[in-house]
Amino acid sequence: MTLKTDTSTQSATAGLPQVSLARNPGIELDLDWALGVQANTSAIERRAASLPGRRSVKKAFQAAWLCKAVSLIDLTTLSGDDTEGRVRRLCAKARQPVRPEILEAIGMQGLTTGAVCVYHDMIETAVRALEGTGIPVAAVSTGFPAGLSPLHLRILEIEESVKAGASEIDIVISRRHVLTQNWQALYDEMAAFRAACGPAHVKAILATGELGSLRNVARASLICMMAGADFIKTSTGKESVNATLPVSLVMMRAIRDYHARTGHMVGYKPAGGISKSKDAVTYLALLKDELGPRWVQPDLFRFGASSLLGDIERQLEHHVTGAYSAQYRHPMG
Amino acid sequence: MNIPDIFETMDYGPAPESNAEALEWIATHGGKFGHFIGGAFTKPAKGFETRNPATGAVLAQVSQADSKVVAEAVAAARKAQPKWAALPGHGRAKVLYALARLLQKHSRLFAVLESMDNGKPIREARDIDIPLATRHFYYHAGMAQLMEAELADRAALGVCGQIIPWNFPLLMLAWKIAPALAMGNTVVLKPAEYTPLTALLFAQICDEAGVPAGVVNIITGDGETGAALVEAEVDKVAFTGSTEVGRAIRRATAGTGKSLTLELGGKSPYIVFDDADLDSAVEGLVDAIWFNQGQVCCAGSRLLVHEAVAEDFYKRLKVRMDGLRIGDPLDKCIDVGAVVDPVQLAQITSMVDGCSEGEVYRADTPLPEGCFYPPTLITGLSAASPLMQEEIFGPVLVSTTFRTPVEAVELANNTRYGLAATLWTENVNLALDIAPKLAAGVVWVNATNLFDAAAGFGGVRESGFGREGGWEGLLAYTKPKVALKGAAVPVPFAAPEGGTRPDLDRTAKMYVGGKQARPDSGYSQAIWGPKGALLGHVGIGSRKDVRNAVEAAGKARGWGKTTGHLRAQILFYLAENLSARAEEFAGRISDLTGTSKAKASAEVEASIARLFTYGAWADKFDGAAKPVPMRGVALAMNEPVGIIGALCPGEAPLLGLVTAISPAMAMGAPVVAVASEAFPLAATDFYQLLDTSDVPAGAVNILTGPVADLGATLAAHLEVDTLWNFADPALDADLQSAAAGNVKRTWTQRMDWSAPQAEGRAFLQAASEVKTVWVPYGEG
Questions:
Q1: Which residues of A are catalytic?
Q2: What is the separation of C-alpha B24 from the centre of its chain, rounded to a whole number of angstroms?
Q3: Using a CB-CB distance cutoff of 8 angstroms, which residues of chain A are in contact with residue B14?
Q4: How many CB pairs under 8 A join A and B?
Q5: pLDDT at A246
Q6: Nearest-neighbour CA in chain B from A152: distance (Å)
Q7: How far, in Å, are A40, B66, B74, B196, B499 from residue B33 at the CA level?
Q8: What pTM did the predictor assign?
């Protein structure tokens, strides 16, 4: 077992306005624990399938929940054709995600998204565009999305991104370590990434759609947390299957288990495929029920999403006017 | 609360389902309901109020049916039955299909009404009760369609009296009415006093669906109405409810010839092995014991956890319990609704308050005023604790721990009940080993409370008998098309003046546990032939001999775990050995009964053939894999029914015995047979064949003596699971009444024992019970 070397960031908060918790310092790799975890696919799917029927929020509560969802979005652009102009437009949307008169009508002025998430080359643009807003910039890193570039370059990439001003780094794990059950390698890699992040928070992308089983998702979740991940995240958005409720249930339960045993609270980020207001509410209900209300805050939960915001905007306008809205009534990001 | 405040607290807030339409429907009936008889509602009469348990508000006035009303309803059903049964299956299928469609079309109205009348969360009524009820009608529309082709030798029973409980009012109605109608029966159904409304709404849609007048009759009332319905001129009584009432119904119908199915209480085990997905097993408990406020006959109410993970498991469970939301059943965001009635609440409260052992944990979650009970966990109990044995019928889970799989099975089966069982393990070897060992009619592996019309549901032991759903469920609503008549019950030949004596005295004893045993009474009786010859003596069996034989049979329960191939070999061997002594047996039959040598030889040949038949069946009475609507299988396994007490026919001294014991042997059910009272010596001669044919000790036990007395003792014996009366239907009243003790199955048959109907599936079905094992699967 390898002891993590980086303990310098235990109490650091990266200066993020919404962060108030001590970071997860990680623990020694505990394989007895990780490998003892089971995940029964059918049972997990049943729980996930029945949840939307068990939880429902209406009227003002629905509007408030949707505003909360906005505040939890990592507004994301991760395309090969991203330009500075495109990123500036996205940042403007992050600062003003919903039309001001709608926010005024519901008393939610000042609402912003949780963060903006971009590739490394767009960090500086984003940081400048968000100056003074307190909205953090997250960068995907470590050879995103496949994570198959040389390890030292992946670590260097993290360091460069932190230097460029990213306060959150979304790393991708090496799926092969999970598939070949090389848990030590997974732990070591994650610990190295965490160390490279320094004060920046690290989100571990498991690429759950490529891990083969929910049991592997559960085990990889625990091992990444043991190695010091601040967040665990489902997907890059580039896999054929991204965030799902069953996967989210497994990862949330792993977070709960980790918290129960170590006292450390680790965040959760489902990414990819969440595009409807109803889905967002369902995810938040699952989060609240499985992990408790404390997790429903930007320091412990994010949506990795690009099109979700548009649907929420229409729902909020409907809440205010009573009439269904149209997409073109809302400024694009 | 304004939006910025909610943004901080992230409360769920109210999410009410409107009750306007349901109230309006009640109002269109003036808030008062009569009975639905002969296709029309009667004028509302004196009766009682039905209330919303969540609010205490009166919903409607319903009428109390007395025996006169019951008789009218039964008469209406009787009048409609021949025409309904004569309708081609396709005709009945269309009506059942229309019922399914109408349930679907009015699904929200049914769901809201159910929630209001019963107190169950709207989520459950909407997502579980109503869709399952609808599915039941679709499924049985198909059964009506297929009846002529697939059940060509079966016919409707006639008029069915059906009494259903308050926990799943519409769903239980569907379970009762759909198969009855599909098979050409007509029904008089009584919903529970607390929850009559959805049945009355159903009555209304029967008209829309084109159900002919009199085919479905709904009468409302309390237990007295139910009792009157049981007493009425019905051909069948189907009851779902408490074991206590089930027993009373068993006694009330004893000897009447009414067909009976009982789906009764339970204290179902919920077993968590150390390799289970613990979080999913915790979540499963939410669906097991906090589903419908725990008012579920098959609720997983007895939690058995492996000691190694118990502490961890309880910790997780308590956290989950604290997250349950209790309150207004019509709120779409509620997990646990109202208990059905203050009477029930008081019952739950007093049972839990009376528990002086263990540690009681109540969910740390707000509890509204009124008819609500908090989700409760009681740990640290032992099998001896009353709450581990008694059905609470509320949201109360009791628990203890186990060390090994063997101990888990012992604890699970340490109950009078046997309705359902749940087990959680990721090990397929363990799951498929344990499931058959559990005394339960339904076993769920890594899931709980799964239901479907294609999968049989019903219990063993004091949880009742009969199955609902699947092909097996249709047995309870049909009878053989051709009714067979038996011969008159023979009487023994009297001792003559003088008479002849055998050259050498021969002593026939009892056959118990593979050995010949002297009668405990120390009394014997002489058996005389028709021409005054003393043929020998047999022991006069008594209570003690029954006790010994049942004990020996109990030790032979492992017989059912042997392979069908092995049992087939033994049956063939028995036939072979009988064949070798055919002449001797024919002579004995002739001497005993006075029948001709040719007829006696024919009886021996028929007996040999029958042994062959069941040798053939032993490895061919297949179960089924049911196509339930999920990723997984529901296995219908034919298991031995338990210990069979069999009263052999007086006539056919050899064939009658073989008819009784060989299907039992084929299924691996240990049997205690009472030999022909008039002509017992063929059975006692048979001992030697059993001895020389590798039949395991205790698998077949034979007693001689007075059938009425031995039958009565067997009927009352609490370890005997089934009583077959092939001897004398006149005994049924006493036997069936005594059988109520442990709610044992009874089966009475009289026929020409050489008829083709005297063997085959019907006998194998009587010697077995279907266990449905649900195995959801999937990975990824």
A1: 170, 233, 269
A2: 39
A3: 58, 61
A4: 108
A5: 98
A6: 32
A7: 49, 15, 19, 10, 75
A8: 0.96
